[in-house]
Input
Amino acid sequence: MAKVSETIRGYIWWMYPRGSVHYDVMVTLILAFIFLAPLWINFRDKPVPRPPHQTEVLVKPDGAGFVYTVDAAAINPGDDEQMREELARAIEPVAGEIRIDRYEAVRNDKRSVIAYKVWGHR
Output
């Protein structure tokens, strides 16, 4: 009985020299805990799922030019000139410098603006 308690005390106080069998057992137990504990213990550290927020620009060919669909959240509404500047700023990283021919708001069932369709060319 004294031998078992001395062995356990040696594990707790890390008294065994490196390279010994007991040292290897302690290291193996620690590594087993590190790699196997997440399978049995719920640490509750998973990221919170968030709904995707669309900010990309969708591009479709349209005869001589393209139709760009820009999410309304990416635009600060204003007068016509400000809207054209905002839309161009949102589209330029995708398409480069463009000229906006016209644009129109895309609305949902509740009549809220969800996106803008922009017709333009280079």
The CA atoms of residues 64 and 121 lie 7 Å apart. Residues 57-121 form one domain.
